[in-house]
Design goal:
Blueprint: H1 11-14, H2 19-50, H3 55-68, H4 70-73, H5 78-103, H6 108-137, H7 141-173, E1 188-189, E2 192-193
Antiparallel strand pairs: 1-2
Helix pairs in contact: 2-3, 2-7, 5-6, 6-7
Length: 194
């Protein structure tokens, strides 16, 4: 639907950015940055493990990762990392994307693609979990290689997904309704404090 004030521009195009939209976009980028950083660190560690890193050195590096990593500080291990990404994507699918569709109906095909990518990344995460469990049961070269391959598939698909998501939804996120416009704020139901 085009605007009568500005032919060729939709109501969405004319909607101003909101404080909530800008804050939500910054939060999304921050979560994605942590996912990227920790995925890269875990991937590097998996490669070193596949290359025959001594168990004591592997333990040292895992301990260092636990001390210095955002996700590991939240008591997230490699398997917990997978759960975190699953949770992040579930929250987007269940709430965030619904609101983005309401904010900008033209974004439907982008949201459809993002949801399909969530399913693909979910499959990749399950593959990482299965490979890590296998390595736990039997520490063989083959088991180590399966972890590396699973992490590489996850890395490839997850990083492409994050890049596409960030580039495709920014304008819509920045125009999400502010709390004062009837949007539910954290700790509220239907916008009213409990």
């Amino acid at each position: 639907m085009t605007s009568s004030l500005h032919p060729g521009r939709t109501a969405f195009d004319q909607a101003p950015e909101t404080a909530r939209g800008r804050a939500t976009h910054r939060a999304l980028l921050a979560v994605h940055a942590h996912i990227r950083r920790d995925l890269e660190t875990v991937q590097q560690l998996a490669v070193r493990a596949a290359d025959g890193l001594a168990p004591s050195q592997l333990r040292e590096q895992l301990d260092a990762l636990k001390r210095g990593s955002f996700l590991w500080q939240l008591q997230v291990s490699c398997l917990r990392y997978c759960s975190f990404v699953h949770l992040h994507h579930h929250a987007e699918d269940a709430d965030f994307f619904v609101e983005l569709r309401a904010t900008n109906p033209a974004i439907g095909s982008v949201i459809d693609r993002l949801q399909a990518e969530h399913r693909r990344v979910s499959h990749d995460l399950d593959g990482v979990e299965a490979a890590a469990n296998s390595l736990h049961r039997e520490d063989t070269e083959h088991a180590r290689q399966r972890v590396v391959e699973a992490l590489r598939a996850l890395e490839r698909n997850l990083l492409a997904h994050l890049d596409f998501e960030e580039g495709s939804i920014e304008a819509t996120v920045r125009r999400m309704r502010d709390w004062s416009e009837g949007t539910r704020a954290p700790g509220t139901i239907s916008g009213t404090r409990q």
